[in-house]
Design brief:
Helix content is 35%, strand content 12%. The chain is α/β, with parallel strands linked by helices. The radius of gyration is 17 Å and the shape is globular.
């Protein structure tokens, strides 16, 4: 029987690839998504479709409302920054960063893993082609894993919890290429931070720009629709 693992699934390009990687490594993935008050809640429908397409038996969606704190363009009435090219992105942490989001998500994943008897958690963080979020760095993941092994029954009993980050040192193009080999249907995914009412991507937020460059560098066409006004 395949080992159970919790996979954080947003419905975006990275997490959908990680879901496929977990399966390819012999794990039985239990997908975990969040409805946290994000303006791009369309990603949850994408997550549902991705989970179904990859044969995931258990897909849990947790409701937590981070709008009560705000502090991010994704959870408050703040404009999502738009740019014309990736070159315009800076190394400063953008306002689309949701305070402590990965810590919150990983904590829920850890709790879910304990109920499953699982010691493996997968997350699609990346330290190369990303927006500079502090909770995507290798040192953060290492610190969380150390904490997890102090805070859980499994850890105390010597069954070490592992936080898997298979994309952390890959470019977006490399991630896409890996996903294509594994049969990921990127047409089902949603990466945009500020999609239109019909779900089409804006084409100019950080996430859209990084995604589009990834497909270009991989020599592939991005299968998701973009706003006709994004040019």
């Amino acid at each position: 029987m395949n080992k159970p693992a919790v996979v954080l699934l947003s419905g975006g390009l990275d997490s959908s690839t990680v879901l496929a990687i977990a399966s390819s490594q012999g794990f039985m993935p239990h997908a975990l998504s969040f409805r946290y008050g994000q303006r791009h809640a369309v990603e949850l429908e994408a997550a549902r479709k991705v989970a179904a397409s990859q044969g995931v038996r258990n897909h849990v969606v947790v409701d937590i409302d981070l709008r009560v704190f705000g502090g991010s363009a994704l959870t408050a009435d703040l404009d999502v920054p738009k740019h014309d090219s990736v070159e315009e992105l800076t190394d400063q942490i953008p306002i689309t960063y949701v305070p402590a989001r990965n810590t919150i998500f990983l904590s829920f994943a850890l709790a879910y893993a304990e109920t499953l008897g699982a010691v493996d958690i997968f997350i699609g963080v990346n330290a190369l082609d990303y927006s500079g979020y502090p909770d995507c760095r290798p040192e953060y993941i290492a610190a969380f894993q150390a904490m997890a092994n102090l805070a859980t029954v499994a850890g105390v009993n010597g069954a070490n919890v592992t936080i898997h980050t298979p994309l952390i040192s890959l470019t977006k193009a490399q991630t896409i290429s890996e996903g294509m080999v594994l049969g990921v249907d990127y047409g089902l995914t949603s990466s945009c931070y500020d999609p239109n009412e019909d779900g089409t991507a804006c084409g100019h937020c950080d996430s859209c720009l990084l995604r589009r460059r990834g497909f270009e560098e991989a020599g592939l066409c991005d299968p998701v629709p973009y706003s006709p006004n994004d040019q």
